[in-house]
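Please go through the sequence line and token line underneath and see whether the fold suits the sequence. See right below:
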Amino acid sequence: MTASTPPTPPFRDPDLPFAKRIDDLLARLTRDEKISFLHQFAPAVERLGVAAFRTGQEALHGVAWMGPATVFPQAVGLGATWNPELVRRVGAAVSEEARAMRARDDRVGLNVWAPTVNLLRHPLWGRNEEGYSEDPKLTSAIATAYTRGLRGDHPVYWRTAPVLKHWLAHNNETGRDVTSSSVRPRVLHEYDLRAFRETVEAGAVAGVMPAYNLVNGRPNHVSPYLREHLRTWTDEELLICSDAGAPSNLVDTEHYFDTHEEATAAALRAGVDSFTDHGTDASTVTARVRGALERGLLTEADLDAAVRRQLSVRFRLGEFDPDHDPYARGGEFDTPAHRDLAREAAEQAVVLLRNDGVLPLADGTRIAVVGLLADECKLDWYSGTLIHRSTPLEGLYERFGADRVEFAEGVDRVLLRTSAGRCLRVPAAPGDAADEAARGAEGALDPALLAGRTDLPPLTTDAVGTELALVDWGDGVLTLRAPDGRYLSVAEDGFLRASAEQPGGWVVQETFRLEPHDGGRLLRHLGTGRPVRVAADGVRVADEASDDPEVFEVVVVERAEAAVARATAGADVVVVVAGNDPHINGRETEDRTTLRLPAHQERVLAAARAGSARTVLALVSSYPYAIEPGPLSAVLWTAHGGQAAGTALARVLAGDVSPAGRLPQTWYADDAGLPDLLDYDVIGSRQTYLYAEGRPLYPFGHGLGYASFSYAGLSVRTGDGTVKVACTVTNTGDRTADEVPQLYTRAVEPSVARPRRELLGHHRITLAPGATAEVFFEVPLSAFAFWDVARGGPRVEPGPYELLVGGSSEDVRLRTTVTLDGEPAAPRPVRRDGLAAADFDEQSGTEIVDRARTAGDAVTPVGGGTGELLFRDCDFGPDTRRVTVTAAGSGAVELWVDGGGPAPVTVPVEATAGPYDHRTVEASFAVGGVRDLRLRLRGPLRLAQVGFSG
């Protein structure tokens, strides 16, 4: 070192521990620089040579929104593989591509927002495609595998830094920023927290993103659970990134705080470290932080805590050690190995639900393939841009030969005739350079480059018109497509053009509705909400002030059934490919309304059945459906399988691959079996396979194959804090195939409501014909625990537990019973500790709300009416004489004990100053011994605590 060479600052010294380096860098930052780091797009600090950094790169099943990338099956499809090792390899491939893409485009981020670990509690949730399973054990196993792949296996440096979404109890899109999930302690600890906890504890998670919704009346972005639970599960500095726009929602839509300065301070102090708000413009967020500091709502220590957690992630990503970071040179991109992995994942995700022997299809079979998704490779909101693609039709052509396959999409072909007798006409698409630029590597139009184009000519009218393909996707939501495959779309200038390869976008501009009007139909564009009109310069949506919408006559040129009948006439087997478009009727911001297939697709399915007794239904969808499988020869389901979806499905149909996917969630027989979408009490309302008592259409864990398997030799040993279970599985079929042995448990004599069965472990194994494998499960005793509200912690109840091994939650092949010592129950010491209102055993007509903005729970009757709470085994001691009720609002609390005793006591609560202004009221209540206590709440009061004294 020469005299003129400045010394290397400690934060640049790779030999120092990260903690010391972070301390050094943090001390060098000015307050303004630290404030600037709190926005998603942190600017560079040039004087220190610190680069700009942004949190957030979508990578749910491939690198998204950054151009061409390998597209793997949707997350729910990865969950259906029940194969953590496969999913780990997928995560590794995604992170390799993120590094490779970043090497040539620094907009690609390494702080990846994936995976989504919200449990698939309700199949009508619009974002069902983003989660792995309704079961916390399976979800955490798959999520842990994905995060390990994303992280990489270097002991110091991370290839990418995964952030789990969305904390917490988030399963509805309807009103998602204003609805509150009422989650009692047992559901919180036994269900919603588990998937997050087990994944975080596995050690490959860099952070968490709070969800838009509220939990127990409090927005997730100011949740005390971030501090009380999440940060206690790991020694790593977890980075908490807000969801987009959520910090502003605290004031603008949720009205939880009066000012943005208060909201920003509360979120930062609760643990939010990076604010994703106002896009790339950081000025609004940084001004709010400065305002909070000036008002004394924040301290510089609060800033330091958040910036420290950000820097911890940046150091782990190797940003400050380019010569030591093993991933700094980038990664592999679109390699043969990644393409093979995409196909393997798509194959393993296929679930065979039913088969009467028609599958696999023999070579030489004459196949009719029909349906709206037969020649589609659909993408969702979090997909990357396809480099390669295969549709079911293309896969069947490749596998069986085009001369053996007939195709009919099964759409209605129509003309839309105006009141003047003219028809909508789609001008020919120009073959110009702009059009060629919108085509990808294989000639397909890139929707990102095509959608919203205004250089294409708008629709006009003439005497002949253009025949349009019309599809009703359900609830009257339509798409219209020109003969060249382009969907009618509306750009910002309001004109209708054939200018989209697929429906898509945050606001979908390719959907319409035909509404009866004045003897004809209005064509209403759903993206703008306006009807279509015919203007002199082209067809466009009406201006807001316009009262001149066009009234159309729908002229049917050909019904879908006629095309299906032609295609099926000479077929040996008909394959109907049905399902959803991931951007329509079920997606982010939009929940589904029914489990049923859309009526249009039911028509196509009925026409196929009429054409052939050997009909196979292949459902390609983001979520379950309620179907009537009786007349069908076989039923398969797969999530949208990414770039290799068609090849994978064809190989399964042909028997080149024996299907072994398993359902990651229950398929219900009809809508009547579903709970309310906003009812998050999986225990009380008996939701998911854990508690549901009705017979499902297909159970959790179900899936068939082309081989049979026998189970034998179940053995169980206990000791060292574990239960060890073993059995043998033998392939009794005539082909190599995978099997998924699953271990469940059931408490035989529970004192509280427990799952009717609960997954403890699973394996996916490959066996040749006649081969036998020994399968081992090692389960910690803690897996048998429930959350005991009386003690405020987990407890393994002593007694018998049934162990069940088999091919699904209902296909039990082996069973035995093990008796666990556990910890005996103890009465609630209510005389000593009192009762937290939210720690009830049972309830009716109530919901949990926030006791204060920062922490605590209270209970209130739904809608300010009447509700009841039950607390079992309360120990009042020998001589309780008084009761105190701590509550806010106004109303009354009525108390009594079961089995005789004092008459019910009513404690009035006079109106307080606000929902957080709690008052303690005392009354006489003479009771002794151990009794069940019941409370009836009347009126809009918020009960926080009940106490007892002599």
